[in-house]
Amino acid sequence: MSGWSRAALEALDRDDPLARFRAGFQLREGLLYLDGNSLGALPQRTMSRLEQTVRGEWGEGLITSWLGAEWITAPRRVGDKIAALLGAAPGEVIVADSTSVNLFKAITAALSLRPERGVILSEAGNFPTDVYMMQGIAAFSGGRVRAETVAPEAVLARLDSDVAVLVLTQVHYKSGAVRDMAAVTRRAHEAGALVVWDLSHSAGALPVDLNGADADFAVGCGYKFLNGGPGAPAYIFVAQRHQAAAMPVLSGWMGHAEPFAFEDDYRPAAGIERFLCGTPSVLAMTALECGIDLMAEADMAAIRAKSLALGRVFMDLMDEQCAGLGFTLVSPRDDAQRGSQIAYAHPHGYGIMQALKERGLIGDFRAPDVLRFGLTPLYLRYADMLDAVSLIREVCEARAWDDPRWKVRAAVT
């Protein structure tokens, strides 16, 4: 028995130092939203801030707002705020484009620093866009560069004199398993390789220390734990020591040393701004900044502590209430090795998740058989874990997955 009664969980909620943040999000009563690792909830402040941007800055200020409302400096301003969450220095993070595009920038910049090497390495089962970008760069290189994936446990052993860039996700998107950033980076550097870290499932979910780990490059999205909204701009980190030498292949006008000089030839900006490409999306950047500002008000150590505690409660309750129902834990039980999500495999995983959504529990499904439950400490409660697991048991006992509607998977799972 787990010993997690409703009374015990509600007592934890009363003593929760992060409890006040829940009121800062728009969440309808009765909804169990365990998908913040895919799309964060809407901060209440975002709506009024966007209205101000649309009605005042755009509607009244028009083009003068590029300077008057500081639109033009938003990528750097918001980037510096994200840097504070990632253990990076001001001027090492810029907000721009998507995670995929920033991966392209980071990988090609790293390749430019290791011209004598030709392998981009990652683990099999990494998030697809990371590997697709590697493959696209390799195909475009005309044979000079090769993309290679190996089993996760074989990555460090594969590091050799031909590896230019190692591309890894700090928190695995499917299992939630955490890589030791400092140890992996150190091993890569010993082999002469550079590392590009994908922080999409770690930024805002657990402490990140890029400079403490001597990281080279990193990318991440703004719409998960940072609560920046659907399709929020992403960000790229480039260690200051690399900025002068790393040449961006995507040499857009906003990355020019003087964009409004309108010169025919490209001259890269001196610092992190050289990793900009085109005009920033002001409305999306505005929403992202609201999410970042809200995150900055919380203590990251408290976020991590609650995240791990929520995970332990969830797993304990699953062990107690759903034993024998076909679930296999995919996420690590060890706190030090687990991010801010819990994942289970089940032969009927897709149908189970659809049935749960109909009952007010939103998680997500990842092929072939994994159900993911995101644990977002700023708005989830301990008692929500009990309600969630009770619904999971109810769906399984009723075999609610066995519904003709779930035979064909939706475009978004």
Please describe what this structure looks like.
The protein has 413 residues and is α/β, with parallel strands linked by helices. The protein folds into two domains: 6-42 and 299-406, Aspartate Aminotransferase, domain 1; 72-296, Aspartate Aminotransferase, domain 2. The protein contains 13 helices and 15 strands. The strands form four sheets. It has a seven-stranded mixed sheet, with helices on both faces. Strands 11-12-15-14 form a four-stranded antiparallel sheet. A two-stranded antiparallel sheet has the order 1-3. β14 and β15 (370-374) form a beta hairpin. α2 (44-58) runs antiparallel to α10 (282-296), α4 packs parallel to α10 and α11 packs parallel to α13. Pathway: Amino-acid degradation; L-kynurenine degradation; L-alanine and anthranilate from L-kynurenine: step 1/1; Cofactor biosynthesis; NAD(+) biosynthesis; quinolinate from L-kynurenine: step 2/3. Pyridoxal 5'-phosphate binds at residues 99-100, 127-130, 169, 198, 201, 223, 253, 279. This is Kynureninase. One of its GO terms (cellular component) is cytoplasm.
Summary keywords:
alpha/beta; four-stranded antiparallel β-sheet; 2 domains; Aspartate Aminotransferase, domain 2; seven-stranded mixed β-sheet; Aspartate Aminotransferase, domain 1; 413 residues; 15 strands
